[in-house]
Amino acid sequence: MKSVSKIISNQLIVKNSKFICILYPLNDLNDFNKYMMEVKEYYPKASHYCYAYIYNDIYLSSDDGEPSGTAGRPILNVLQKEDLTNVLCVVVRYFGGIKLGAGGLVRAYTKSVSSTLEISDVVELEKGYKIRLEFEYDEASDISYLLGDSDITDKSFTDKVVYICLVSENTFLKLNKYKTEILEKVLIKKS
């Protein structure tokens, strides 16, 4: 499985209509609403905000007022064909005054996503864990060594140090002697 490593956007003009495709890495399904709000604030006068996302085994698409099946589903089809997961794709459309017809819309949305993926940094994913790791301050250098290039998403420092991390299965096994709590199974970048 693959995903995009960072947010990227690309623009396509088809018969005076502007299609702006934005790809987001979707590391948490709760980010979906935040990203949609950002898009609508940044492109406030757009005609349509069509989207599709895949998060693990969950997927959803929306035509947002375009004729049924002409926007959301084609976006989702491209994401699935490229074996992507944990990704949100929003295509913002500014209507240019010329109707494209159902076939034209499908081609335009498909091309918008495909051309954006061509310039995206696509990464391989592997199964891993989101963990909570609690340890003493004097163990920090050992923990840093064991974590290697794992993603530490949150740190707190009280009487002990607590990290929230995204780790591979191999790294998780190395951390076995520490108080490690699995928060959820996730997909992480392959190292």
Straight-line N-to-C gap: 14 Å
CATH fold-type name of the largest domain:
Ribosomal Protein S5, domain 2
The rounded Rg comes to 20 Å
Q: Look at the structure and give the mean pLDDT.
A: 92
CATH class of the largest domain: Alpha Beta
Describe the 3D structure:
The chain is of the alpha+beta class. The protein folds into 2 domains: 119 residues, Impact, N-terminal domain (Ribosomal Protein S5, domain 2); 65 residues, Alpha-Beta Plaits, CATH 3.30.70. The chain has 5 helices and 10 strands, in the order βββαββαβαβαββαβ. Strands 1, 7, 8, 9 and 10 form a 5-stranded antiparallel sheet that branches. Strands 2-3-6-4-5 form a 5-stranded antiparallel sheet, sandwiched between helices. α2 packs parallel to α3. It starts with a strand and ends with a strand. The model has no long low-confidence stretch (mean pLDDT 92).
